Amino acid sequence: MTLPSSHQLTRRATLGALMSLGFAAPALARDGFSLGLGSFSTNDIKNIGKMLKGISLDEQDEIRMGEAYYGPIIDAEGGAYANRSVQASVQRFAAPLFETSTRSSFSWDITVLDNNEINAWALPGGKVAINKGLLRYVDTAHELAAVIAHEMGHVEFSHALSEMKKGSFVDGLSGVTQRTLVSELEGGASAAAGIGMGALRGPLTKLVTSGYARKSELAADQHITTVFEQTGYDVAQGAAFYQTLLETIPKKSKGTTSLFAGHPETKKRLTALLENAPGIQVQAAHPSSWDFEGLKKTFPTRRFFNRHKG
Ligand SMILES: [Zn+2]
């Protein structure tokens, strides 16, 4: 995977973007505009929006965002499921999948959330979360591995950053949030630990939990094949989870998740995934099956979606 060229740019490029919008240095000082935690006038906020669209976010920003938001979004999405052995099993299960990552500077992590929705998500920098609701519907180790590999794809290809750079994402942010985002990107850890950690949390949560552009979802599906080729899982068996989603989620349901994109679209994705799946040497006794069996003792497989039941 070749990273987008923006990854090679540095923080100076951010300043460059500012300059190109007409923020000459003296003007910065005169208007009291500061890239730190300084004050902004209402007029500046419009320009921050413009600036965010042209900003160069690099790999360090991804790592920082993942580290800053993983805990708060976990808390907002039901909190970590309070069962150490479940958490440890999922971590062991995911470890060989994470080893296939080409993003070597990322510190990959996975947490099971106390949330009954059938969903999973990932933040930039390699921070993955799986709802306990999803663990109830995956029937084989291949299916769980497919979900994790799909989420890894979003991280590998920096899909969250691509979305964040879109005008619609920036325009949807309040002035305060835009200002906070600039502060966080420029101020680094000190800003991230300080003001506004809640400000971007909402928009970022919506972004990572509700799915990306069609092209990105297809790329994430394709990444399942890449990961499976190296880990000995079977794409066809993994793809069965999409079939489960089609069967369990009501036809009229408009809700989309990081995995389920509505009925016709999910069906198309399932077909595309199977068409592109090469013949992989499947490991008969996969080392992760023991952990999967352990998880199934806590989360026996359900066939009918019931988001309200325990
Ligand atoms: Zn997705």
Mean pLDDT: 78
How would a textbook summarize the main sheet?
Answer: 3 strands, mixed
Principal-axis shape: globular
Q: Tell how many strands the DSSP assignment holds.
A: 3
- Strands of the widest sheet, in order across it, are 1-3-2
Strand content: under 5%
Instruction: Kindly provide the radius of gyration, computed on alpha-carbon positions and rounded to a whole number of angstroms.
Output: 21 Å
Describe the protein's architecture and organization.
With 310 residues, the chain is mainly alpha-helical. It has a domain of 184 residues. The chain has 16 helices and three strands. A three-stranded mixed β-sheet has the order 1-3-2. The relative contact order is 0.14. The N terminus is likely disordered. It binds zinc ion.
